Amino acid sequence: MENRRAIEWSEAAWLNQPEAVLADGNNLLVTARGGSDFWRTTSYGFVHDDGHALLTDFPTEAAIEVGFVAAFEQLYDQAGLLIRVDEQTWIKAGVEYTDGVPHLGAVVTHGRSDWSMAPVPDWAGRDVTLRASRSGDAVTLRARCEDEPWRLLRLAPLAPDAEAAAGPMCCAPTRSGLTVRFTSFAVTTPDPSLHLN
User: Fold this and answer.
1) pLDDT (tens digit, 9 = 90+) per residue, 54-73?
2) Are strands 52-57 and 165-171 parallel, antiparallel or unpaired?
3) If we measure between CA atoms, which residue out of 110, 162, 118 comes closest to residue 136?
4) What's the pTM?
5) Domain 5-188 carries which CATH code?
6) Residue-range domain boundaries for the chain
7) Best exposed site among 36, 57, 103, 195 by fewest CB in 10 Å?
8) CA distance 96 to 101
9) Residue 177, Cα to own-chain centre: how many angstroms?
10) Averaged pLDDT, 120-138
11) d(Cα 85, Cα 156) in Å, to the nearest integer?
12) Cα 100 → chain centroid
């Protein structure tokens, strides 16, 4: 049985303060600083650990959900969810603008980052929800647009004894002025299995 609780924005703490944060009803409008990102080394040769994330504790046998709407216009504009242990161990998942369209993707980092993605052009400007379910030695990442079915995005390792935090994330690596509307932030029970159907 699902046990869901909304997380108040004030319950979480910022990793790297954004350019601006504004409460709008139950939503939170976050404007990213230009040049912000999370990435470690692979292919590009640089390390960025200055993206914005509003983090709360993420214990085992729990799931964190983050909802958002954003108008992505420039290369690498991104929003979603970050799971963080430390600067070398983290996972981000969400929607990122590349090759002219939004892509659903994930970056898993254990010392060095990787990146997987798939185009979702019909998700542009719509409400997207990311869910990270932590159980045992793994995190299962799922995403959906509005009330569409959940899509399995990634299964990633995360040590059961790792002290992790998770929450809404956004970055604007190539420009200033990206504002993301975060529409939900909640903790719930993890998905019962890797395959829901």
Assistant:
1) 999 999 999 999 999 988 99
2) antiparallel
3) 162
4) 0.96
5) 2.60.120.200
6) 5-188
7) 195
8) 8
9) 19
10) 96
11) 14
12) 20
